[in-house]
Amino acid sequence: SPMLRCRETAGILFPNAKQIVVPGFKEINFGEFEEKSFEELSGVEKFQAWADSDQEDVIPGGEIKKDFTARVLKAFWETIAPLDADEVYTVTHGGTIMAILEALSDPHGDYFSWMSKNGHGWAGTWTGEKITNIEKV
Fold first, then answer.
1. Are strands 131-136 and 122-126 parallel, antiparallel or unpaired?
2. What is the Cα–Cα distance from 88 to 123, expressed in whole angstroms?
């Protein structure tokens, strides 16, 4: 992700690795919800409506999940999939990871099944078409 926190974290976790900044891996645009905690948004009607839609509705002033997913997958296919490397690490956002794994996981899991805690994620094997052997890290 182009976000500073991701680039700094990548530098700490992988100090000798070459960083490739992938603008398309930026988190979904949260619009009116940006920089607000769940607690701050709890009880806000627009937020509740968006959450009740399984996050499929447009975020007021922000992005719709299907457009976000299309952006992330385009970036993946253009940047990550063609890499000729034995190991590739991505340091990005939860929603970005969830979108990639929902589309490319084998066995398949839906978007919310790929949630992980901050500082955690997933490891898997890229076959050229799917991500297999996925496990939490």
1. antiparallel
2. 10
User: Whole-prediction pTM value?
Assistant: 0.88
Query: Encoding tokens for residue 103?
Result: 């589309």
For residues 61 and 30, what is the distance between their CA atoms, to the nearest angstrom?
A: 8
- C-alpha closest to that of 65 among 120, 73, 113: 73
Maximum Cα–Cα distance across the chain = 48
The answer to whether 91 and 13 are in contact (CB under 8 A) is yes
List pLDDT tens digits, range 62-101.
Answer: 999 999 999 999 999 999 989 888 889 999 999 999 999 9
3-state secondary structure of 126: strand
Which pLDDT does position 38 carry in this prediction? 86
CA-CA distance, 84 to 51, in Å (whole number)? Answer: 39
